[in-house]
Amino acid sequence: MNTTAILAAIRDVRILVIGDVMLDHYIWGDVNRISPEAPVPVLHVMRESHSAGGAANVALNIAALGGKASLMGMLGDDEAAKHLARMLDAAAIDISRCVIDPTVATIVKTRVVARTQQLCRIDREASRSAYALDATADIAGLLEAALAEADAVIVSDYAKGVITQALMDRLLALAAARGVLVAVDPKPARHLNLRGVGLLTPNRHEALELAGLPEPGPGESYPLAEACRRIHEAIAPKLLVITLGADGMAVSYDGQVAHRLATEAREIFDVCGAGDTVIATLTAALAGGANAVEAASLANRAAGLVVSKMGTATATPEEILNPRQADFPV
């Protein structure tokens, strides 16, 4: 399938996103002096903005591509949740399967940015146990109903607590019975058993963690082949795609490196959310009938667009087909 055909097929794809739902808050400004109170910059605030983060950004990426996205996660009964609901509703994303718990705070990440340089990040969140879906809801019933209306599932684990082993076990069993693709963006520090997932999309550091390999030293090459072999032995994903930053992307089957793609980023302004774009595009393309290399090529192109923008961002079909006309920072 060519790019146009894949993007057309994505319009009929239904994808369920399960994971840590967040609100990304940006404070934009400029720095002209150091504070007399402490050796820290003084930011003159020019504007503030909000965007969907975490699993919500994955769903937004699917919607931006033209697919139909539904979202399952945990939200508080607060202003941040209302702000997220308005943004997701505007993108026609179904959030009816999100659990609303007034006893927890919606996760908010605030990034303070001076021009294009991030100065710091401020996180507002409760304990991991507060966001566990299977502790507050009939997760089996929720999953079964959601899977009945999905062509694929994306697990977006930001290690905030929504994704537990019990949830993964139920999801994989139900998906296997229905023949539904399960894609996972993993957090190796969680030590979850992901054996048998359909698609796994670690970045270069996460792949080393999953493989039990150290970071290469100065002058040493990245052990891609060994990482793929070890991940296959441990998890056996049907498809493994490792994002390698400036070195592009690698596609692996059965523990072997099958294909390498060079990065398509013109200039990197912000890598925030690039992993969300990769797994959203890969999953949507695969569900739409693309093969692994076609799907990875599309995801590589979409990620190249997203990292060329400031803040949490998405890529549209129009930008993918006409990248020279994409809206990039000046």
List the helices and strands and how they pair.
Blueprint: H1 3-10, E1 14-19, E2 21-34, E3 41-54, H2 55-65, E4 68-72, E5 74-75, H3 79-90, E6 99-100, E7 107-114, E8 117-124, H4 139-147, E9 152-156, H5 165-178, E10 181-185, E11 199-200, H6 204-211, H7 224-235, E12 239-243, E13 249-253, E14 256-261, H8 274-287, H9 292-306, H10 317-321
Parallel strand pairs: 1-4, 1-9, 2-7, 5-6, 9-10, 10-11, 11-12
Antiparallel strand pairs: 2-3, 7-8, 12-13, 13-14
Helix pairs in contact: 2-8, 4-5, 6-7, 8-9
Identify the notable features of this structure and list them briefly.
alpha/beta, 10 helices, 330 residues, UDP-N-acetylmuramoyl-L-alanine:D-glutamate ligase, eight-stranded mixed sheet
